Amino acid sequence: MKAIRCKAAIAKGDGSFVIDHIQVAAPKPDEVLVKIKAAGLCHTDHDSLNWGKPIVMGHEGAGIVEQVGAEVNELKSGDAVILNWATPCMTCFQCQEGNQHICENNSPVTTGGNGYTPGHADLEGTKWNDQPIERSFNIGTLSEYTLVKASACVKMDVSMPMPSASIISCGVMTGYGSVVNAAKMSPGSSVVVLGTGGVGLNVIQGAKISGAAMIIAIDINPERLEMAKKFGATHTLLADKEDLGLTKAAEQVITMTQGRGADYAFECTAIPALGAAPLAMIRNAGTAVQVSGIEEEITVDMRLFEWDKVYINPLYGQCRPHIDFPKLTSLYAKGDLMLDEMITRTYPLENVQQAFDDMLAGRNAKGVIVFD
Q1: N or C, where is the chain less crowded by C-beta within 10 Å?
Q2: What is the CA radius of gyration of the chain?
Q3: H or E segment and range at residue 228
Q4: Torsion of CA 46, 127, 141, 347, to 10 degrees
Q5: pLDDT per position in the chain (372 positions), as tens?
Q6: How far apart are CA 86 and CA 71, in angstroms?
Q7: 83 and 153 in contact (C-beta within 8 Å)?
Q8: Matching CATH topology for 4-156+339-370 and 175-315?
């Protein structure tokens, strides 16, 4: 099979992007060529505009297998798949420890702040202007076609709309997994969720599915708080923009939880000033979870840790793609996981800028790019 010429959204590295044609090669023995049908958008995609290098954008997606490499036996042409950016090798130390999301051989993420680990970026198989170009998180889903490792594909065994399937790739998995895999929330718990965007709503869903007795959603946007109720929040707090560190909101949370504080609190705002805020909202020996991936330096009052409080910073909901994705699709099929309702609006590839504008303005729970 010859290389395919197709349209893609390409970040130029200087804060701008362009819709242009790329060339996607035929798959190598361990690779899969996927025709993308839908790609979710999140703030990381917007951040990729400033990563200082050209890159095929997008790291959430679902599509149809077009062709498989000679060594790929678990997939075939025509299979519907959800793409996963944390592709495990299953042989390294971390994979053997069960930490497939931080695979030492394949993980594209780093603490360096630019989204990539040197040496792990895949430059083969995709070209722009006859030059090799990286695919965001090694999958680059804002493209009509993409070339990925077979381990980046999870076959869909449940019938569902492609836009709904596409958002499982990151936002849904991150929120749900932070509750279920990372925090291991106990039934009957009290939970606080700071920020009710796409990830925060999925934290709420994960808490509801796990049997939380109280789910307090906090946001500065009243419309998002109304949305949070639909996804399972039992209580809402409208925060004040002038409430630095959400100290007043924390006082309200403590009052609402019998003067003790919540069992769990999840930070989903990506605002550095709120990185320590969940610590002020949990009880002694409670658990605070930094979900949004804050990578800036922050100052923390160590008294917030008193006493025996736990603070964790999980990546990608500690995703084990071939275990967790089927669970999520089964929960969707059962009616316990709301995905269709999360998609506020869909856009063609040519309208990526409008999708970004709506996301940054807080108009969408989730925006999705759809392909014919």
Answers
A1: C
A2: 20
A3: helix 222-230
A4: 70
A5: 688 999 999 999 999 999 999 999 999 999 999 999 999 999 999 999 999 999 999 999 999 999 999 999 999 999 999 999 988 889 999 999 999 999 988 888 754 444 444 445 667 899 999 999 999 999 999 999 999 999 999 999 999 999 999 999 999 999 999 999 999 999 999 999 999 999 999 999 999 999 999 999 999 999 999 999 999 999 999 999 999 899 999 999 999 999 999 999 999 998 999 999 999 999 999 999 999 988 888 889 999 999 999 999 999 999 999 999 999 999 999 999 999 999 999 999 999 999 999 999 888 989 999 998
A6: 20
A7: yes
A8: no
Answer CATH for 175-315 from 3.40.50.2000, 3.30.200.210, 3.40.50.720, 3.90.226.10: 3.40.50.720
Cβ-based neighbour number of residue 298 at 10 Å: 11
Domain definitions of the chain by residue range: 4-156+339-370, 175-315
